[in-house]
């Protein structure tokens, strides 16, 4: 049988607003397959987002959802998790929302190691607001605010997350669709802050300005740059030039989780009365 | 063993004509018919589900037994 996505989609919400060929729909399908694989309960699952194209995702998913202020998904989600630690909290958002406007919230959620899963759809640009460059826009690439090429170097979201203290970091691409749900399943199962970066395509505001002739060319680029972690071990530094590692990049199960630690603080405070 | 063919359902209301399913089908089963994707050669389908997996618009269902 075909996979039944309709179970997790709010009735009457499709077709979604994303442009033809936008990878966000592929990531949403991956998330739905992951939630179905784990047999999550709708009333115990919260999908939280900020503002942006990618952040429209919770509007379509039929479970507890929260569409919040720009970049503040991690802050609101922390509130949800602290109030209801038994909830599965999943954050979704784009690269601009997560690492620029919400950069501070992102690194501190990583540092706390609170048990949540952050799916960052990295399409290298602010799509919804008109194609401004984001911290992930590669050097030299064009955006509406950098018409002569972006002088800034881009963020490596996975390294940023590892450096900030996230305990599970993985990366996939919208092209490798059947890997997305596997990464998300592992991320949700992990107790601690998990970051899943999905390299995405934005044909409308990024592709057109950067001489990608079609969605297919953008998808093929994702296919070319992605190298699985295991394959990369056998490759030389020269061969890895310009490539991006995919798969589970980092996992640490020893670091204490924030809600568990905070419960201990509450116990200590009660005992000291 | 006789090969059973799947049923490929394309929901035109959802299809945005992005060409992803047509380009990445390994067996050239699909084609663009006007604005929408459509099935050209169902006999060649190997049920790899790549079109269903990659369709960003929830517009393709590959129904197998």
* Mean model confidence by pLDDT of chain A: 93
Low-confidence regions of chain B: none
What is the H-and-E element order of chain B? Answer: EHEEHE
Strand order of the largest sheet of chain A: 2-1-3-4-8-7-10-9
Q: How many helix segments of chain B?
A: 2
Bin the helical content of chain B: 10-25%
CATH structural class of chain A: Alpha Beta
Which word captures the global form of chain B? globular
CATH topology of chain A: Rossmann fold
Which CATH architecture of chain A is right?
3-Layer(aba) Sandwich
- Give the overall silhouette of chain A: globular
C-alpha Rg of chain B (nearest Å)? 11 Å
Spatial strand order of the main sheet of chain B: 1-4
Characterise this structure.
- The complex is a heterodimer of chains A (273) and B (65).
- Chain A is 36% helix and 18% strand.
- By secondary structure, chain A is of the alpha/beta class.
- Chain A has a single domain (5-271), classed as Rossmann fold (3-Layer(aba) Sandwich), CATH 3.40.50.
- The mean pLDDT of chain A is 93.
- Chain B has a two-stranded antiparallel sheet with strand order 1-4.
- The chains are: A alpha/beta (273), B alpha+beta (65).
- Chain A binds chain B through residues 1-3, 5, 9, 14-16, 18-26, 29, 174-175, 177-178, 214-216, 219, and chain B through 9, 13-14, 16-20, 23-24, 50, 52-58, 61-65.
Short structural description:
The complex is a heterodimer of chains A (273) and B (65). With 273 residues, chain A is α/β, with parallel strands linked by helices.
Task: Write the topology of this structure.
The complex is a heterodimer of chains A (273) and B (65).
Chain A: H1 24-37, E1 45-49, E2 64-67, H2 73-83, E3 88-94, H3 95-101, H4 103-112, E4 117-122, E5 125-126, E6 132-133, H5 157-164, E7 168-173, H6 177-189, E8 194-199, H7 203-207, H8 215-225, E9 226-228, H9 229-233, E10 244-251, H10 258-271
Parallel strand pairs in A: 1-2, 1-3, 3-4, 4-8, 7-8, 9-10
Antiparallel strand pairs in A: 5-6, 7-10
Helix pairs in contact in A: 1-6, 3-4, 4-5
Chain B: E1 7-10, H1 20-24, E2 30-33, E3 36-39, H2 50-54, E4 60-63
Antiparallel strand pairs in B: 1-4, 2-3
């Amino acid at each position: 049988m075909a996979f039944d996505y309709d179970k997790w989609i709010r009735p009457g919400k499709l077709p979604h607003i994303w442009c033809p060929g936008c990878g966000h729909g592929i990531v949403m399908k991956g998330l739905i397959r992951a939630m179905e694989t784990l047999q999550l309960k709708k009333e115990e699952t919260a999908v939280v987002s900020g503002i942006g194209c990618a952040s429209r995702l919770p509007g379509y998913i039929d479970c507890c959802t929260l569409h919040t202020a720009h970049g503040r998904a991690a802050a609101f989600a922390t509130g949800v998790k602290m109030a209801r630690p038994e909830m599965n909290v999943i954050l979704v958002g784009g690269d601009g929302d997560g690492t620029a406007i919400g950069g501070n919230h992102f690194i501190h959620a990583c540092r706390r190691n609170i048990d949540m899963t952050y799916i960052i759809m990295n399409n290298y640009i602010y799509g919804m607001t008109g194609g401004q460059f984001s911290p992930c826009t590669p050097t030299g690439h064009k955006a509406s605010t950098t018409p002569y090429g972006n002088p800034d170097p881009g963020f490596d979201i996975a390294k940023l997350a590892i450096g900030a203290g996230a305990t599970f970091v993985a990366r996939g691409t919208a092209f490798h669709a059947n890997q997305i749900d596997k990464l998300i399943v592992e991320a949700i199962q992990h107790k601690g802050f998990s970051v899943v970066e999905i390299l995405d395509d934005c044909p409308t505001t990024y592709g057109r300005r950067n001489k990608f002739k079609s969605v297919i060319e953008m998808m093929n680029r994702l296919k070319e740059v992605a190298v699985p972690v295991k394959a990369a071990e056998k490759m030389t530094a020269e061969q890895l030039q310009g490539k991006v590692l995919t798969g589970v990049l980092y996992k640490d199960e020893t670091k204490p989780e924030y809600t568990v630690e905070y419960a201990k603080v509450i116990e200590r405070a009660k005992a000291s009365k | 063993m006789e090969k059973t063919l799947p049923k490929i359902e394309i929901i035109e209301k959802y299809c945005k004509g992005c060409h992803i399913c047509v380009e990445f089908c390994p067996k050239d089963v699909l084609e663009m018919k006007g604005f929408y994707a459509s099935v050209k050669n169902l006999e060649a389908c190997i049920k790899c589900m790549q079109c269903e997996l990659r369709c960003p618009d929830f517009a393709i269902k590959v129904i197998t037994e």
